[in-house]
Amino acid sequence: MDFFEVIGKRRSIRAFRDQPVPEEMVQKILGTIQAAPSAGNRQAYEVVVVRDPVRKKALAEAAWQQTFIAQAPVVLVFCTNPGRNVDRYRERGAHLYCIQDASIAVTFAHLAATALGLGSCWIGAFDPSRVATLIGAGGTIEPVAMLPLGFPAETPPPTPRRSLSSLVHQEQLRKP
């Protein structure tokens, strides 16, 4: 798939086939995450790979009963790690850049999954303290997104998008 085809085919998939994701595909996605740009190349994020059915079910419960999360063969949990860049970027690094870094990594994983014929769905609605406990995160490391991965069991249509004229502004924002 070429890049623009990947962008056009990406969907939020909430139903997965009961089929394992080959390890080579998981590793390819993880390599894509590693290649994602980050502030000062500090990579101020951590990724936890979850395959255990009991833990996936608990993650789904921590995500306010989004049960499809447990259906996915693999769930990636993305966490901020502000300690990786706070020395260079201070407060902005600790409170913004690490979130941006993790978000870029999730985006790369989401698109890589699409390119490989897998489905995924960016999950931001969850109880971060429960998820942190489930994945063993502590200190300043905080979960910010989950990405269930698997072979899609659905083909949702494209969702409507804002028009470019309402989204893109030349030189400055217009008043709403």
CATH architecture descriptor text:
3-Layer(aba) Sandwich
The largest sheet is: 4 strands, antiparallel
Number of domains: 1
Please indicate the percent range of residues in DSSP E strands (runs of 2 or more).
Answer: 5-15%
- Measured as a percent range, the helix fraction is 40-55%
Unreliable segments (pLDDT under 50, ≥5 consecutive)? none
Rounded Rg:
17 Å
CATH domain class name: Alpha Beta
Q: Total number of helical segments? A: 7
Average per-residue pLDDT, rounded, comes to 95
Number of strands: 4
CATH topology: NADH Oxidase
Describe the overall structure:
The protein contains 7 helices and 4 strands; from the N terminus they run ααβααβαβαβα. With 176 residues, the protein is of the alpha+beta class. It has a single domain, classed as 3-Layer(aba) Sandwich (NADH Oxidase), CATH 3.40.109.10. A 4-stranded antiparallel β-sheet has the order 1-2-4-3, sandwiched between helices. The longest helix is centred in the middle third of the chain and has 30 residues. It is globular, with a radius of gyration of 17 Å.
